[in-house]
Design brief:
The protein is of the alpha/beta class and 276 residues long. It has two domains: 108 residues, 60s Ribosomal Protein L30, Chain: A (2-Layer Sandwich), CATH 3.30.1330; 158 residues, Alpha/beta knot (3-Layer(aba) Sandwich), CATH 3.40.1280.10. Helices cover 33% and strands 19% of the residues. The longest helix has 13 residues. It starts with a strand and ends with a helix.
């Protein structure tokens, strides 16, 4: 149903305007929360993945292009139970800082995460993101994982949430395509990965590190690999590196010793998935 927005302080818009990502995450009980899907493409991917919108917010000019999605989820312009809040573009900019070229924004019910065993089932290439704090890097890693054929993404307890608004946006909604969940406790769960048949490889600088291409070339044809990427700045924790089965590195030139974690991940994902 279409709901014109006349009052920018309307409590119905609180999820878009006054709640932080942390507050959104815990807004509903039991523990499911809300996340914001920003842009028509991201919304479409979320809906295709079975996620349920609570409401939409957009300018009038985007209604026609979104009518198929709105009809599918019960927000049809000619009637429906999911509110579609509509405001003129200057008001939207004032309200949310929302960039109108992205089309629309939706408040979505946060899905329950699958158990680790479900993500690992049938997977041969997974990535573990250890304690990344930058939502942009998390989103970029997820996007690369989806684009380059990784089978799953695991995030440690202190890693930034892949469903934070910026992470979802940077991932271009691919977080809804790649199976993912949290892995805990960490790094104790390295033993769980190993028990599931994975060789756990740390991407890190180390005197005993093996070049990534050499590591991949020596893998058995049916090998399963869990690649662990570390936090911005400090990289992987020493105890994580010590617990892994191997340490691998990307050979560098030009006096550069490392890449941004998202760039390094993309290189490593390509190398891992083209030899499978």
């Amino acid at each position: 149903m279409i709901v014109p927005v006349a009052d920018l302080t309307d409590p119905a818009l609180t999820e878009y305007t006054h709640l932080t990502d942390v507050a959104l995450r815990t807004r509903l009980e039991p523990g499911r929360g809300v996340y914001l899907a920003e842009s028509s493409q991201v919304i479409r991917r979320a809906v295709a993945a079975g996620h349920r919108p609570r409401s939409f917010l957009m300018a009038p000019r985007w209604l026609e292009s979104m009518v198929d999605v709105l009809t599918q989820v019960g927000g049809a312009p000619d009637g429906g139970h999911v509110p579609v809040y509509v405001a003129e573009e200057p008001a939207l900019e004032q309200l949310t800082g929302f960039h109108l070229h992205r089309g629309a924004i939706a408040a979505m019910d946060r899905p329950l995460l699958p158990p680790l065993e479900a993500v690992l089932a049938g997977a041969r290439r997974v990535v573990v993101l250890e304690d990344l704090v930058d939502h942009t890097n998390v989103g970029a890693c997820v996007r690369s994982a989806a684009a380059l054929g990784m089978d799953g993404v695991l995030v440690t307890p202190r890693c930034a949430d892949p469903l934070y608004r910026r992470a979802v946006r940077v991932s271009m909604g691919t977080i809804f395509q790649v199976p993912w969940t949290r892995i805990e406790p960490w790094p104790q769960s390295i033993a769980t990965l190993r028990a599931a048949g994975f060789t756990v490889a740390a991407l890190a600088l180390s005197d005993d590190a093996v070049a990534l291409d050499r590591f991949v070339a020596n893998l058995a044809p049916d090998a399963k690999v869990a690649l662990v990427l570390g936090a911005e700045g400090d990289g992987l924790a020493h105890r994580t590196i010590a617990a892994c089965d191997a340490v691998v590195t990307i050979p560098m030139a030009g006096g550069v010793d490392s890449l941004n974690v998202a760039a390094a991940g993309a290189v490593a994902f390509w190398e891992l998935t083209r030899h499978r």
